Every structure is written in C-alpha cells, then in structure tokens.
C-alpha cells in the first residue's frame, strides 16, 4: 500500500482510534491499528480490544491500495511529533511500513491484515437516530454514577431502555453504583419501540463521548441484545453489550419525600467543597443541618478539626440533620444547569431525590451517610 496524507488529518483519526487500544496486550495484533488505503482516495483506520471496535475514514491521496497493521500508539506518537502542515507518506511492503515526512523517516514492523480480528456485528434489528446534543446530555448526566466495582459487572455501564411515561413512550438512561443513581428521560426516538433493554459498557461510553464533540447533526444507533453500533459520520463505534440484568432501579426512586429544600446549586456546591477540605479522605462525609431557610454544612474530622458554613436556601419543613458523601453530592450538583435545584428529603436514613424541577429530564437519588 502507498498513500499520502496531511499530518493534521492523520493525527485526528489516530487520536480517536488509538484510545481504544489497550496499552498492555497479550495478543500482539491488538496493539495495532489496521490501515487500509482504498482506491476511492480514503484511508480507513480501525482498532479493537475485542469488546469495542472503532472504524474511521479520512481523506488521503492513494497511489497504491492495500492494507497493513502497525503499532497504534507508536504511529500516533510519530504523527504527534511531526511538524504542523507536513505531508505524511505511508508505504508498506514485506513486513515493514515506511513513514516519511519532510526530513524525518521511520520504518516500523507490521503484522498482516488477515490476522486482525473484527467484531462480528450480526443482525442489529433496532435502528434509530438521536441528536448528538441529546446523546451528550444522556452520557454527561449519567456516566459519573457508573460503578467501577468489577464484582457487580452489570452496573459497569449505562442502562438504556424504553418505557411508558405519563406523556407517552420515552427512552430512559440510568446508571448507579449503589450509593447514587442518575436517570435521564428523553422522548422515544422513531424506530426505538420494542428495543431490547441494554447495558452500554463504561469504555464504550467514554469513547463515544469523545467523538460526540465533533458531531453536529444526528447519530445513528443500531442495536441487538448483544451489540450496539453508533454511526457518527466519519467514525463508527461498535461495542459488545454487558451481558447481565440491570436491577429494577425504579424501586429506589423515592416518591413520598415531602421535605423540600430549594437552593442555588453553585453556591451549595462551593459550600460543600469548602467544608469538605478537612473531611477524612476515606469517607468524605459532610453533615447538613436544615432549619427554616437556614442550611448549615459542617465537617468534624478527628485528625484535622472542624469546619462549618451557612448557605442560603428555601426550606420550610421540620428541621433535621443528614449526612452525605461530599464527592457524590458535588458530582450531582455539577450536573445541574439551572440556578435552582430541588432537594427532596424524608429523614436521615432515607434516599434523597435531587432534580432541577419536575419537568427536568434528569433526576438523581443519593443515599445518605451516618455522620
């Protein structure tokens, strides 16, 4: 194969695909990116870790069509260090690939393209489109709550499912780690009716989010019970889904929390952040004492001392004290876009519901802590 490509174009394509490649691999070819120069004047890049696969197509001047695989991270590092505006010539023959740009010349060892594994998608019967902005909102407002605990592997992703709401059919996305829950509800896109319930893995979610920043229009989503594919224009991301059953999270969403605090999320978050400076690293616990229109945040740490701050808010119910993990609370408050958030409380031991208002697409549930 032989092709010439602009450095910026090559770098952008490689930056997307190389992040799918794991740094440590027992199978050497999984460290490689598949480069395929086509007669139509394009260079196709592909990388996989056997669970997630990315294909990207970039423009190139192709002198000789062909395909080869070469170390993804090495090629990415070379492209990164080449001078801006350079034309990069790629040619491969007899187990080596030569890269020439200006006065720089590299020769890398390659592996044949026939050994490169491809995820078999199979049939993907459910197909629909989602605006890139909607997909960004779904990811941003839920992914912080994805569990990192490998033993409960079925919580290591975002759960997508269709459902009936008072206003008609909706698509719901939820993530939880057992301490907090995030859920986003959007209108059900055309073609998504009857879709299987699926859990999209954390790594796929992270790669998808990076790619979404470069998409203006809509994203095509195709899925079956075991695979999902996102069509993002230049890039196609295909992933295996988590094979497990997501718990019935609706049972933990409180409906009868009648003590309501209305507060500015940014001043609330800043107050929590300040007092938690001295909180123990392990628990990060902060205590919230509620009184009529007066909220006092405090932390008592045996090794560091004490901290307290009053934050203004609207609260008319009976006063009481409740404790939260400050990190979890700040994660949720950081997702609130408006200048008012509703905190629905019951007592010091019951789950707390947090949302912008009853029309908001996102809602959050946070379990309290003993402090």
Question: Can you characterise this structure?
Answer:
The protein has 371 residues and is α+β, with helices and mostly antiparallel strands. The protein has 6 helices and 26 strands. It has helices at 7-18, 72-81, 132-140, 202-212, 265-275, 326-333, and strands at residues 2-6, 32-38, 42-48, 52-59, 61-64, 66-71, 87-93, 96-101, 104-111, 126-131, 157-165, 168-176, 180-187, 198-201, 218-223, 227-232, 235-240, 259-263, 285-291, 294-301, 305-312, 314-315, 320-325, 341-345, 352-355, 362-366. A 13-stranded antiparallel beta sheet has the order 5-1-7-8-9-6-2-3-4-17-16-15-10. Strands 14-11-12-13-26-25-24-18-22 form a 9-stranded antiparallel beta sheet. The chain has a 4-stranded antiparallel beta sheet with strand order 21-20-19-23. The longest helix is centred in the N-terminal third of the chain and has 12 residues, at 7-18. It is elongated, with a radius of gyration of 25 Å.
The biggest beta sheet reads: 13 strands, antiparallel
**Low-confidence blocks of residues:** none
Strand order of the largest sheet: 5-1-7-8-9-6-2-3-4-17-16-15-10
Query: Looking at the structure, what is the overall shape?
Result: elongated
Give the integer mean of the pLDDT values.
96
């Amino acid at each position: 194969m032989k092709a010439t490509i602009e450095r910026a174009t090559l770098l952008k394509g490689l930056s997307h695909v190389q992040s799918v490649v794991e740094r440590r691999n027992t199978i050497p070819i999984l460290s490689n990116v598949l480069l395929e120069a086509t007669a139509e004047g394009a260079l196709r890049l592909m990388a996989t870790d056997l669970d997630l696969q990315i294909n990207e197509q970039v423009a190139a001047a192709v002198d000789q069509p062909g395909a080869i695989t070469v170390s993804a991270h090495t090629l990415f590092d070379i492209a990164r260090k080449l001078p801006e505006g350079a034309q990069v010539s790629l040619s491969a023959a007899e187990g080596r690939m030569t890269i020439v740009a200006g006065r720089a010349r590299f020769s890398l060892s390659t592996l044949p393209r026939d050994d490169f594994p491809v995820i078999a998608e199979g049939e993907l019967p459910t197909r629909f489109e989602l605006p890139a902005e909607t997909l960004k909102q779904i990811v941003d407002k839920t992914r912080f709550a994805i569990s990192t605990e490998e033993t409960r592997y079925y919580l290591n992703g975002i759960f997508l499912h269709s459902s009936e709401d008072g206003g008609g059919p909706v698509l719901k996305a939820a993530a939880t780690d057992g301490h907090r829950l995030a859920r986003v509800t959007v209108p059900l896109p055309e073609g998504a009716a009857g879709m299987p319930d699926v859990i999209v893995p954390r790594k796929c979610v992270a790669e998808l989010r990076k790619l979404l920043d470069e998409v203006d229009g809509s994203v095509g989503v195709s899925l079956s019970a075991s695979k999902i594919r996102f069509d993002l224009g230049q890039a196609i991301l295909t992933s295996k889904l988590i094979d497990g059953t997501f718990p019935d999270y609706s049972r933990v969403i409180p409906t009868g929390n009648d003590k309501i605090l209305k507060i500015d999320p940014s001043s609330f978050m800043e107050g929590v952040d300040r007092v938690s400076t001295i909180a123990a690293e392990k628990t990060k616990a902060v205590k919230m004492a509620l009184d009529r229109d007066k909220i006092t945040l405090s932390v008592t740490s045996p090794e560091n001392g004490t901290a307290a701050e009053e934050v203004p808010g609207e609260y008319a119910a009976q006063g009481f004290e409740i404790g939260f993990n400050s990190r979890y609370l700040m994660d949720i408050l950081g997702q609130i876009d408006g200048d008012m958030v509703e905190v629905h409380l019951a007592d010091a031991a019951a789950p707390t519901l947090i949302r912008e208002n009853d029309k908001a697409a996102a809602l959050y549930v946070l379990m309290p802590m003993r402090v």
